[in-house]
User: What shape does this take?
Amino acid sequence: MTDRALSAPQPGDWRYWFGEQRGALLALAVFIVMFAIYTANHPAGFSADVVTTAASKGVLLALVAIAQTFVVLTAGIDLSVGMIFVLCNCVASYIVIGSPLETALGVAGVLATGLACGALNGLIVIYGRLQPIVTTIATGAAFFGLALLLRPQPGGDVNEDLADFLTGQFPGGIPASAVALLVVVLVIWIPFRRSMLGRVVYAVGSSEPAAYMSGLHIRRAKFAAYALAGLLAAIGGLFLTFVTYTGEASSANANTYTLNSIAAVVLGGVSLFGGRGSAVGAIFGALIFRTIGDLLFVFDLDPLWQPLFLGIVLLVSVCLGSFRLIRIRNRLDLFG
Amino acid sequence: MTNLLANNPVLRRFDPAVLTAFGCIFVLLLIGSIINRNFLSPEYLLQQLQVGSFLALISTGMMIVILLGQIDLSVPWIITVGGMMSTAAAGWGGLGATFAIPIGILCGLVFGLINGIGVAYLRVPSMIFTLGINAVAQGFMIVRTGGAAPLDMATDSMHELATGRLILGIPNPVWVWIAVGAATVFLLRRTVFGRAVYAIGNREVAAYLSGIRTQRVVLAAFAISGSLAAFAGALLAGYSTKAYQGMGDPYLLPSIAAVVLGGTSILGGRGTYLGTVAGIILITLLQSILSVVQIEEAFRQLIYGTVIIAMLLVYGRQRAQT
Assistant: This one.
């Protein structure tokens, strides 16, 4: 057998592909159905404006969910993504303004802030050998302190041309935010997934000892995952600034986005045990989660009931994985 | 240092992490006394213990859950449920007012049981399931209060239990802490349940194969955690004379930090209640020093997060992998 024969697609390969993408595809299907119900019942129907508004809201959570995906793939968890998101929102409300050059530098500054926060998490988890959950709860408190320092009161400003461009519509009614999200996926996620680094991240998540025994650079991969999570949270924070035009150190926002990012990741078929799932799935998980809120709005549910309903949806969706328990023959597999 | 500990028969009985935690307490007391002369007065220290006892109740439940290798992130809103439901019960008058605190605890117990069912029987990772329960509890409280924050007044007996000094001039919550702490030590060291908790924390399959009904133990642990969090909520409501939304939010990080700083492994299976007591005192003193030096809330959060990370880096690290 030649090398070429090995690398050529084999008949039946699609089954592996399908197996790997099942979670993402399921999330996509659920999202399409829900969004169809939503637009069908919306007074304005399936119009460009409705889609654009929905996209702007969905993209925020989708970006934070991608951030969470990177860390969850390594079998870790980042409970500080929401705080990095809010911190970057506050930073952006200071520096993303002025001439195009200044704005560009400002954007770079915001991204660097997020990257630095993520890198710090990574360093503490890897070299400090602390558990991700404890580390990120504590660093999250520190990041939120920084945000509060920057913006004791909501305020600030942002380059409105850029903001309107990125939250508006392209010709043909295509929402710009969705295009921006696509660009993020194409520029960051796809190269990451296809690189050696990405494979190592999946390997570490599947089995760290096995990855170590195979001579992979575990530390490098973990560090990259945490740093990229910070970067994606920063892009999210930047986008939040474009949507709201202000910076606000809101602890409610920080906590909600952290929680919802985990929910989105789970809905999108990413395994919390690591090594399974993709950012694409997480994006649709995030969009599903947002659409649930929109559906409640369309069907005139009392806003007071919304948090409870979302909580129950979250709880039920994380329990869906329990169906595997029915198939278990040997009780010992319960503890696997 | 390690040799010294290993060779000295008295010191060997103590976990190095617990000793370090007590060392840190000493340092914090020293710093506090430099900043403020009244810091070391018995009155001030008793006050700190009183404030710390609310955290202590929460951390006690958290510790049992962490010993299992799980975590309970639903604590913030279960505290709020405890506070709000007990004040609500007080509002019903008659029997409700008499049993205000038990009713609050009962509500926490229900949420704790659901946590336990999700984690033990549905096998959902505790991190995500308890976060979900946190969201559901928040949803219930928002529906109940109509979005606003009505002034839910605590009963006199709740206020008395949280602020009074019935015996020996020691604040009542401290007595509650001592009672709960003694019960926990008994539970962990002298009962089958306690043995089972440590066994499950080390390896659940092994515990199951040794004949422990592991799922029931996990269920019970989450039920304890939920009840204690709600109890703390009811006491907090008594302390500040009212219950309000978000009253539990500042307690999640400290409760986990106290347990971990006290030398309990976050992966489960190892840890002593003495260590948790040290962790609770440590966190309480740190918070009180930060409030004595009058700085902005922002700096306080920043220093708080940094100090906890720093202390964990000093001695909370896992063993290096080979």
Summary: Strands of chain A lie at 169-170, 174-175.
